[in-house]
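Standup notes
- HV: blocked on the assembly model, inputs below
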Amino acid sequence: MKTNDVILQTTTKLVFFIIFLFSIHIFFAGHYTPGGGFVGGLLTTGAIVLLLLAFDLKTVQKALPFNFTIVTGIGLLLALGTAAGSIFFNVPFFTHAFDDFTLPLFGTTSLHTAMIFDAGVYLVVVGAAVTMIQTIGGDA
Amino acid sequence: MNFVLLIFLPIVAALVVPLLFRKLKAIHTGWFVLLVPIVLFIYYIGFIKTTMDGGHAIAELQWIPSLGISFVSYIDGLSLLFTLLITGIGSLVVLYSIFYLDKNREKLNNFYVYLLIFMSAMLGVVQSDNVISLYLFWELTSISSFLLIGYWNTRDRSRFGALKSMMITVFGGLMLLGGFILLGIMGDTFSIRELIANASTFVGHEFFTLALVLVLLGAFTKSAQFPFHIWLPDAMEAPTPVSAYLHSATMVKAGLYLVARFTPIFAVSEVWIWLVTGIGLLTLFCGSLFAVKQTDLKAILAFSTVSQLGLIMSLLGAGALAYHSDDAIFKFATFAAIFHLINHATFKGSLFMIAGIVDHETGTRDIRKLGGLMSIMPVSFTVAFIGSMSMAGLPPFSGFLSKEMFLQSMLAIRHFELFNFATWGILFPVIAWIASVFTFVYSFYFVFKTFAGRQKSEPLPNKPHEAPSGMLVSPVILASLVVVIFFIPNIIGKWFVKPAVMAIQPGLYSHPSDVKVDVAAWHGFAAPELWMTVSLVGVGFILFLTMARWQKLYDIHPEYMSLNALYDSAMLFSEGGMNRISRFYMTGLIRTYLIYMFAFIAAITAATLFIKEAFVVDMESFTPINLYGILNAIVLVIAVSMVLLAKTRLSAIIALGGVGYSVALFFVIFKAPDLALTQLVIETISVALFLLAFKHLPSLSNHGLTKRNKLGNLIIAAGVGITVTLVALSAHSQKLIPSISQYYKDTVATEAGGGNIVNVILVDYRGFDTLFEIAVLSIAGIAVLAMIRLKLSRKEESTDENK
């Protein structure tokens, strides 16, 4: 079943990046406005699903040559590491730290360890969801 | 230094063992492991001085102070004796294993890790003063024993033996936990010393006898007492160093330790004396009787271990008589028990090592195939001879002394007058004598059938030769101890036995030297135990010579009547029975399970709602209905009915997506942007996922549902819907406790440094939830991968692990 889907494919190439950038935005904005790692991860997954629908599985795997199970693992480690890291500062498990920093380009902004944890959530969501979709879709 | 930490030294050492095994292939890993018990042994020797003066050392490490649970290392005469046995014999066994286990073929990393775990666990058992941590270590010994028995896990017999020992000892362990908790309730403390100090208040407490029986069940299962002894012969599938270490010298003695340790608490009870002495003697008798029947060298030793454990157990029971009578003859038994425990550890350890050597060098342990090894393996024969003669109770070996003391103690029971002993007491020396005859027979059987006589015509699997000298070091050391102890029993008594006796009977002695026992090999012609020994040697020798004629008698006892058969059928029955029960409600259909779940959710929630009179509707607090809401609700209802009425799966999937989107719109209307966003993306992805999986799904059918099924489903569905609605209404209408949102609003900027409460809850306030949720998500991802990629579900349905 090979249909001519030039329009879909061309739009997808553009839209994929828009969704992806939006998901990154949502991820970073999460601490102050709606969003966060979970939604961000889901949006990225959505973008990848769009790619899958427009192209076939092999092309997508070539374009995104990651092993998504490993992405899941990295995400879990990141999340657990952030939570466990507080033990080394002699505060209870899962105590977050945050402060304001002045960075070049960004100006004064607040940095928060919760964001590292959230990045872990993001990676787990992307990793697990794409793993499922790839395996179910790839099982022809 | 806080020496409680030393208990954990082996476990910590176990962490580096796999690394050493990987990186230093050229050196046998055992050499590194050997350092651990040697260092510990040398360190603990330093405590002898303290315990010889009747003192003790104590170190504590808090664990859960709020529950009164801590790691305590309490070293008195009894725990020091066991500690030295564990580390001393541990060193010899590790040394022996270096030559027994080939460094290229065996998984040494596993072996030594298990062994070190065991060492820690065992040290913990004998040193813990807190019953809860004692229980923890107790179970850890069962687990490490399980792993070691099943070390050759490709063999069916190994796995069977491992499971059997695990089943029986863990059963005992759980009983023990119950006993400990009851003791904790009675004494309001988990410390053994404090329990002993309060012991007099326990008598007559309603839990007293129950706690006693439960503790004894734990001790009996661990020490392989009748009728729980059946696991020990099957545990012989373990590598021989393990059998020598766990299943003769240390772990099986944990039960004896427990009985000895709790004697001050329970000795006042008649039940205790009868059970410990009676079961011990019965075990002694059965073990020795069945040892003669065996044809496997290690099986003979296993039954002999069972029987010797019974002997020590009965002595400990008899020792409790000292609490009821001031007569000096009753104070003898505890000394004899500890003394025999030391002797047994030495001679049985050496015998196991010899059995391993014979197996290693000839390729078989079947005594029917062996014979005439004396000239080929002279050193092994000498060690085996010394060990066996000690076991048989002949001079000049240490076993003779403790056997004499045993007979003396059993004879003394006749003079005890309480608890019906006056009537039944005569049985004890009689059974002891018969069991000793059989002990004599199997000792001779073991050593002479293997080493004497002529070689069998049938060639052995390997060409026999003497073992390498490294392998002989450990058994030779143990055998020389057997001889040395015979000549210096009173020094051993002063250093080890008397402090231990004082620890068992703290109320009776104030200093170890108050234990007035003088071990002597010769008591004069008038001593009845001398004549018992003489007669049992005579009868035993005749029985040994005529063995071939009467050994057949054992076959009369049918296999299906044995305890093993009972265990097997109990296992089969419980497995089959449980299977039948599970199959009754586990239909394998997801729809059935959903029916169970939803029906219960609806019923339980609705019932609670009305019983607790929690159902309140307060129209005041409701948001006014607006046009968007009405329109959206209409769309939602239409979408839901489309899902129900759809003829094809595709339209059902799309309609389901519609349901999700309209719910998301509700979130928008009610100003929950985070939820709306998430819901929208989730719906999109799940519809896409459905479409991907679409081609794998069968076409929509009604799965043979009848009208009645459908009606049932309707009722359950409606029930769940109505219940949830009612709960939502009630929850909204009454606030029993103030809402937590205000707290979040107040602290989100100051405490958490964020602005969006929803996300801050996810990553900070309730970060634990999120952590576990992503863990679940990862597991789900891996499960999908495993199910589809590996297709495990279909191919290997019928393989059974335990067959």
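- HV (later): unblocked. Strands of chain A lie at 98-103, 107-112. The helical segments of chain A are 6-29, 37-54, 57-63, 68-85, 113-138.
- Next: hand off to the docking folks.
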